[in-house]
C-alpha cells in the first residue's frame, strides 16, 4: 500500500517531509476521534463474523515470519493457504509469473493465488488482498533493515478471507466470488529520494498488474461486476475512510456507497463517510488495466504509526477490527447489486 497520487505527488515533491508530517496531522485532526467512532455495543460475541478465529489466522501467518515474494516464507504461506481454502471447498489455482529483482536484475518467481467459489456463476465479485510482505521495515527509524512481519500490512486482509471462506460454499447470490491473494505488491528495496509517497523507486503492484493484464487480454467466460481490495484492515485503531480514487471513479462510486451504507446500518462506525487521501494500491491496476470497478477498503495511514516498521506485529492488531471489517464485507456480499 502506498501513498498519494496526481497533484498530491507534486505537493509531496515540493514540500517534502514537512508536508508529509503536516498532512498526517491534518488527516488525523479531521477524522472523528476514537470516542466518536467507537461501537461500544459491538463485541466479538455479538458480531456474526468470527473475529477471534480471523485473529488466530493472522497470528498463524505471522508465525511463519517474513513472507516477501519468492522467499521460503512465501512458499510456506502458499501451502498453508492452499490447504485451508481447498479444505473448505474452494478451487485454488496459482497464477505464476516472474518479475525483475531490482537488486541484481535477476528474475523472482511470484504467484497470485486465486480461489474460486461457485464457478458456474458468470457475474462475479473479486475480493482481493496482497499476501506478500515488504522485504524490510524501511520506515523503521531504529532498524530499517530489520525483520518485517506484516501483521496488518499483509496478513490482515488474508485472515479475513480465510474466515470468510467458511460461508462461501453456501453463499446464495446471483454472483460468484473469487478471492485473489496478490503477490509482488511491495517487492521494494529502494524508494525514490522524494519519499515513500512519490510513487517512484522500485515498481510495485506487480501481481495486480499481471492479474489485470491477463483478465483484459484473455477475457474469461465471466465478468467481474465489482472488486474490493482489503489492505491494512486489522489495526487496533481502525478508521476506514472513503479512498479518494475509489470515490472519484464514476463506475466505482456506487460500490463505495453500497459498502459504507451497509456499515452504517450495522453500526460499524469505523467505516467513516469522510474522503481520505488518494492511495496508491493494487486497486489502481485492477481498475485501470483490468477495467474492474474496484474500491480500496483501507485504514487511514494516520492511525497506523507502525506502518513499514518492525512494530507491525499481531500485538498492534485487533480481533474486533477483523470482525467488524469481515462482517461488513460478508453482509455487503449478500446485498451486492
Keywords:
single chain; alpha/beta; Aminopeptidase; 10 helices; 38% helix; globular
Structure description:
This protein has one domain: Zn peptidases (Aminopeptidase, 3-Layer(aba) Sandwich), CATH 3.40.630. It has helices spanning 7-30, 34-37, 51-64, 72-87, 151-164, 206-217, 244-248, 253-266, 282-288, 319-335; strands at 91-100, 107-117, 123-130, 176-182, 223-231, 240-242, 271-275, 294-298. α8 packs across α10 (319-335). It starts with 6 loop residues before the first helix and ends with a helix. α5 (151-164) links the parallel β3 (123-130) and β4. It has ten helices and eight strands. The protein has 337 residues and is of the alpha/beta class.
Structure summarized in a few sentences:
The chain is α/β, with parallel strands linked by helices. Helices cover 38% and strands 17% of the residues.
Topology of helices and strands:
Layout: H1 7-30, H2 34-37, H3 51-64, H4 72-87, E1 91-100, E2 107-117, E3 123-130, H5 151-164, E4 176-182, H6 206-217, E5 223-231, E6 240-242, H7 244-248, H8 253-266, E7 271-275, H9 282-288, E8 294-298, H10 319-335
Parallel strand pairs: 3-4, 3-5, 5-8, 6-7
Antiparallel strand pairs: 1-2, 2-4
Helix pairs in contact: 3-5, 3-10, 5-10, 6-9, 8-10
Order of helices and strands: HHHHEEEHEHEEHHEHEH
Radius of gyration: 18 Å
Number of helices: 10
Beta-strand percent range = 15-25%
Query: How many structural domains in the coordinates?
Result: 1
What strand line-up does the widest sheet have?
1-2-4-3-5-8
Estimate percent helicity.
Answer: 25-40%
Largest sheet: 6 strands, mixed
- The low-confidence runs, each spanning 5 or more residues with pLDDT under 50, are 4-27, 192-198
Write the CATH homologous superfamily.
Answer: Zn peptidases
Structural class: alpha/beta
Kindly report the CATH topology. Aminopeptidase
The coarse overall form would be: globular
Q: Find the count of extended strands (DSSP E, 2+ residues).
A: 8
Mean pLDDT: 89
- Based on the structure given, which CATH architecture is correct? 3-Layer(aba) Sandwich
Broad CATH class? Alpha Beta
Amino acid at each position: 500500500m502506498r501513498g498519494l497520487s496526481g497533484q498530491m505527488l507534486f505537493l509531496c515533491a515540493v514540500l517534502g517531509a514537512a508536508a508529509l508530517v503536516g498532512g498526517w496531522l491534518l488527516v488525523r485532526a479531521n477524522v472523528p476521534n476514537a470516542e466518536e467512532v467507537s461501537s461500544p455495543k459491538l463485541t466479538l460475541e455479538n458480531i456474526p463474523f468470527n473475529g477471534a478465529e480471523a485473529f488466530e489466522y493472522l497470528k498463524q501467518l505471522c508465525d511463519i515470519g517474513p513472507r516477501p515474494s519468492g522467499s521460503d516464507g512465501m512458499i510456506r504461506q502458499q501451502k498453508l493457504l492452499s490447504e485451508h481454502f481447498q479444505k473448505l471447498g474452494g478451487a485454488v489455482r496459482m497464477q505464476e509469473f516472474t518479475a525483475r529483482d531490482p537488486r541484481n536484475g535477476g528474475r523472482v518467481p511470484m504467484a497470485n493465488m486465486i480461489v474460486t467459489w461457485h464457478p458456474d456463476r458468470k457475474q462475479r465479485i473479486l475480493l482481493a488482498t496482497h499476501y506478500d510482505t515488504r522485504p524490510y521495515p524501511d520506515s523503521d527509524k531504529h532498524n530499517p533493515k530489520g525483520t518485517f512481519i506484516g501483521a496488518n500490512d499483509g496478513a490482515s486482509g488474508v485472515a479475513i478471507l480465510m474466515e470468510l471462506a467458511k460461508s462461501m460454499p453456501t453463499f446464495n447470490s446471483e454472483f460468484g466470488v473469487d478471492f485473489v491473494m496478490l503477490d509482488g505488491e511491495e517487492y521494494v528495496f529502494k524508494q525514490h529520494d522524494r519519499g515513500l509517497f512519490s510513487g517512484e523507486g522500485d515498481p510495485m503492484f506487480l501481481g495486480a498488474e499481471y492479474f489485470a493484464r491477463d483478465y483484459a487480454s484473455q477475457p474469461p467466460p465471466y465478468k467481474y461486476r465489482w472488486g474490493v481490495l482489503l489492505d491494512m484492515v486489522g489495526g487496533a485503531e481502525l478508521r476506514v475512510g472513503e479512498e479518494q480514487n475509489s470515490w472519484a471513479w464514476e463506475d466505482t462510486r456506487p460500490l463505495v456507497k453500497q459498502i459504507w451504507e451497509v456499515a452504517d446500518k450495522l453500526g460499524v462506525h469505523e467505516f467513516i463517510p469522510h474522503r481520505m487521501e488518494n492511495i496508491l494500491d493494487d486497486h489502481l491496476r485492477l481498475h485501470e488495466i483490468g477495467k474492474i470497478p474496484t474500491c480500496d477498503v483501507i485504514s487511514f495511514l494516520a492511525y497506523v504509526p507502525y506502518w513499514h516498521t518492525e512494530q507491525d506485529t499481531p500485538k498492534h492488531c485487533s480481533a474486533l477490527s477483523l470482525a467488524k471489517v469481515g462482517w461488513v464485507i460478508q453482509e455487503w456480499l449478500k446485498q451486492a447489486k
